[in-house]
Specification:
- It is a single chain.
- This protein has about 300 residues and is α+β, with helices and mostly antiparallel strands.
- About 40% of the residues lie in helices and about 10% in strands.
- The strands form 4 sheets. The chain has a 3-stranded antiparallel beta sheet with strand order 8-3-9.
- It is elongated, with a radius of gyration of 25 Å.
- Mean pLDDT is about 80; it is low at about 1-20.
């Protein structure tokens, strides 16, 4: 699929409101431009939440994200992984009360700043979910999981039988044609104790703290989940954009409905139900609540 490239505007043309139908052609990279920084206000604030830079010292200080700069360069070069156009964003439908742009206006969001946020979030989600790297558990994390499983299955102990498990346990090791099985509950509990004692001595730079990565594409639902999480972060940062159900003009002021319609606009799904109500989106939110993608963003780091 060919990546969307922006319609060009006259060089140096910087519209200030959505009434001008064309986005800017290029962002300034080497020079500070106050108007452009204002246009990217939403992008900068969301990027600082999702992709902050870290000063590597004992404090682990978070500093302003470099993601907006990466975004500007990708925008200028026409490399954003988005498959929708500005015309799609502002188009009208038969039910004008539920057009995306009308809902944005009803929520009193700056529609132009929101356009660049939509581009950034769509591009960021693609970097976190498509042709990306899945972070596998480190050896330390796998050992900690083993300890947890064994300890959670210990019901009680006594001086005659030792550990009394809630359910029978077995630890099996396969080595090409050979198998070692340990089902003695006391042995398994002892392994957990020894591992726990050893892990307490592990240094931060130990190989046991280094995990592997696997190339992967995440499911569409996970893409929608991250997309939704980022937009909900935006609305948490700007609580003035309230989510009242109706206004006097009957235009919905629902942030969830807006996000759901954006999911359909950006082609994260072909399910047209997302364009009419937020029921499917509510299911996504419930499914992925407090779950991280566990991937490395191959675009924004």
């Amino acid at each position: 699929m060919t990546l969307f490239r922006f319609p060009t505007a006259p060089i140096g043309h910087h519209p200030t409101r959505m009434h001008d139908p064309m986005p800017i052609e290029k962002f300034s990279i080497d020079n500070y431009n106050e108007d452009e920084e204002d246009l990217l206000e939403y992008v900068i604030n969301v990027a600082n939440e999702f992709a902050p830079d870290i000063v590597l010292d004992e404090t682990g200080t978070l500093v302003e994200s470099k993601a907006p700069l990466i975004f500007k360069r990708r925008y200028n070069n026409g490399n954003l992984n988005v498959y929708f156009t500005y015309k799609d964003y502002v188009k009208t439908t038969r039910n004008t009360n539920e057009n995306i742009i009308n809902i944005i206006d009803a929520l009193e969001i700056d529609p132009e700043k929101f356009w660049y946020l939509l581009l950034f979030i769509s591009d960021y989600v693609s970097g976190s979910t498509l042709n990306t790297l899945q972070c596998n558990a480190t050896p330390k994390q796998e050992i900690e999981q083993l300890i947890y499983f064994i300890e959670q299955n210990e019901k009680s102990t006594n001086r005659f039988n030792g550990v009394i498990p809630k359910q029978e346990m077995k630890l099996t090791l396969h080595i090409k044609g050979r198998t070692l099985s340990i089902d003695n509950q006391n042995t398994l509990s002892a392994i957990a104790v020894f591992c726990k004692q050893a892990l307490s001595t592990i240094e931060d730079d130990s190989l046991l703290n280094i995990g592997t990565t696997t190339g992967t594409d995440l499911a569409d639902t996970k893409q929608i989940g991250l997309f939704t999480e980022m937009f909900r972060c935006f609305f948490n940062l700007y609580p003035q954009f309230t989510a009242k159900r109706k206004t006097g003009s009957n235009t919905p002021k629902s942030t969830l409905l807006l996000i759901s319609k954006l999911v359909y606009l950006t082609r994260l799904t072909t399910n047209a139900d997302y364009d009419s109500d937020d029921e499917n989106l509510k299911g996504i939110i419930k499914l992925y609540r407090k779950k991280k993608t566990g991937t490395i963003n191959t675009i924004y780091g």
